[in-house]
Request: fold
Amino acid sequence: MTEIIVLGAGMVGVSTALALQAKGHSVTLLDRRGPGEETSYGNAGMIQAEAVEPYPLPLDVKTLWSIATGRTNDVVWRFKDLPSWLVPLLGYARSSLPTGYKANIAPVWSKMILSATDDHAPLIAASGAEAIISRRGYRKAYRTEEGLAKAVATAERYRAQYGVPSTVMTGSELSQAEPNLKTQLAGAVHWTGSWFCEDPGGLVRRYADLFMARGGSMVLGDAMSLERAGAGWKVQSNNGPLTAGRVVVCLGPWSPALLARFGHAIPMVLKRGYHRHFQIENGPDLPLYDVETGTFLSPMRRGLRVLTGAELTTLDGPPSMRQMDRSTAAARELFALGEPVEADAWRGTRPFLPGMLPMIGPSDKNPGMWFNFGHGHQGFTLGPTSARILAAQMVR
Reply:
């Protein structure tokens, strides 16, 4: 008999199912698609051991003006979408103020990030995923000396404050390490402690296969059909109704829509990202983030994955290729891209909560309902870590 239903089979949901299973619970995982086929598929593939501080909203006038006027490729927006994200973004801005950010948010976040590789490691080994994992880190590259100098200062602070390892590279050192670069940049910071997965969706599938090999069950179904069933919960699957005493909501950006039906008003900033794969013979040796253009380049199994910055939008808003076009042009300046692999760019949405930290724990309105969502850019990194934290709370 199923004790717990986990809704959502991305990295967070699959990791949650594994962690609860390891505690001795009978768990069923439910999603409308297969594991790792939504947001978890489309990321840069990084397990970011260096991301020890969440991304605050830039509060300086120069950066805000660049975003407002569309002069940056890091963040873009459309006026018609503003009502949907303005209020939660203002909450995110308040959380970005130094006092609360340094005292209450960064310490909690950094503790989770610093555990991420350790929490992934046993799952990678047990699922047989070593072949798609690189432990050589990634590089943040800078086109300007000003950008590089700021990055070096941050790297030095991260090493001193958190023990995060890195290596600073001059432009010539970067060109030697990346001989396929078409132009010399100012330099880079090589974050040596982070890991890279060349098939993010594949890693989630391997974790899901491990969960099922250990006796877990996964079914296709409609998470939005969730309803009360006596003291427990019921959801419709393709195999018929599924009931359990407890349910865990791991639906990322889709969580607020479901939870609104149960009395929870969850403000969320939705940041959409795009990617496209390109054929390439002489690409980057390691994943490379071209910081000033907001472009991430990941050497995936399907080709070189070119990823964009964030688009503030709605969950079902129409696509905009402005960032993708800019990032493709930036990537062509650096490497000899071939033809695109897909006809159209992929897009997916990251869930950001105003308080910056993921929502992990029980509902205060609905007994037996638990939350694990709102990881922003770091769901792929923090899935096993937040799952471990949640499983420790969900005692028998």
Notes: Residues 12 and 383 are 4 Å apart (CA to CA).
